[in-house]
Amino acid sequence: MTQIDLDFIRSQFPAFTEPSLAGWGFFENAGGSYPARQVVDRLTHFYTSCKVQPYAPYPASEQAGAMMDESYARLAAMLNVGEDEVHFGPSTSQNTYVLAHAFRARMREGDEVIVTNQDHEANSGAWRRLADSGIVIREWKVDPETGHLNLGDLDRLLSDKTRVVAFPHASNIVAEINPVAEICAKVRQSGAVTVVDGVSYAPHGLPDIGALGADVYLFSSYKTYGPHQGVMAVRREVADRLPNQSHWFNAGHIRKKLVPAGPDHAQVAALAGIALYTDAVHDHHFADRPGPAERARRVHDLFRAQEVRLAAPLLDYLAARNDVRLLGPRDPARRAPTIAIAHARKGEDLARALGAHRIMAGGGDFYAVRLIEALGIDPDHGVLRLSFLHYTSPAEIERAIGALDRVLSGR
Ligand SMILES: Cc1ncc(COP(=O)(O)O)c(C=O)c1O
Description:
Elements: H1 6-11, E1 25-26, H2 37-49, H3 59-79, E2 86-89, H4 92-104, E3 112-116, H5 125-128, E4 136-140, H6 151-157, E5 162-168, H7 180-190, E6 193-197, H8 209-212, E7 216-220, E8 230-234, H9 236-241, H10 254-257, H11 265-285, H12 292-320, E9 324-326, E10 338-343, H13 347-355, E11 359-360, E12 362-364, H14 369-374, E13 383-387, H15 394-408
Parallel strand pairs: 1-11, 3-4, 3-5, 5-6, 6-7
Antiparallel strand pairs: 2-8, 7-8, 9-10, 10-13, 12-13
Helix pairs in contact: 2-11, 3-11, 3-12, 11-12, 12-15
Pyridoxal-5'-phosphate (PLP) binds near residues 91, 168, 172, 200 and 230.
């Protein structure tokens, strides 16, 4: 198995040579990652040389439009979906909000939507609000000890009235990787549509959405080394059935139909940088060059293997402490490296104390209030969360463990 070349990886991120960040260990990646050089370069290029209204008949505008088109094409190919199945909106929260509205127009009173209490509010609240207009909301509840979603419970909730099942690929707190392909197959068989929040999973390797079989898959590109956008893949047949959410005259325009806001042209253009970074990683580590979906799959596996290696000592350390409640699986292979703990001290206080040791971490409820409550934790007390990516070094992990040791022991 190919091992990741960390020096090469870190050379692709300007933040790692930025003097003001030197000496800081970055452990709030689930909030937003450092951007890759390819993304920063495209954003700079766009702002410098073609920040004009795109798709008009003059060279700067043609270039702007071509850069935006390239983002659709490159990302779709890597995500293994059609180019017309990719939609870029301002954020995942806005994308789910618009989607829920669109789906509601095709539902009847008494139809059912299944949501979880494992999700970030983005893929939960927008659906739950449909209760105000007569849609029945059924909650797929986590195990209060482990935060695990049990598939048997989903079986009991699915009915011939279920229209949508909204669930996360991985939670931003317990981080367990849910069996998305299995859930999507089950839900499709029942005749409903799946809406998968991949925000907490995609930073750990771009998903093969085609293989997962999700009808809708969402993630936020500012967490996948890119600009601040929401990426949404919607299966063609599903998008075709949904009513237009944009200006009436845009109904036939697939990129606009589900995104009422005017696009942020520069950021859309910069999105291709995520694919270019993925390719740079691929070409550095592999001698041959298969198609884009396979290149993305290889890089995904490379990242995952590295992150599993990095997460093991931190998880072992936390699991061994009897003053800490480690949330989610202890086995690094079953989870994303977004590692939250509950402790007698408030999450935010612990994060602040880690800052004194030059560790950037976060504390609070991370908009997963329902999950935090289900786990028996007061959201005001919150959790401490340390989240990292493939670009994190073993030395940074060691430093984080050392800093945690001092902070948790009150030293
Ligand atoms: C798991 C998860 N889903 C959804 C969101 C919302 O994403 P956005 O900020 O793009 O609306 C977040 C944001 O942190 C998240 O962590």
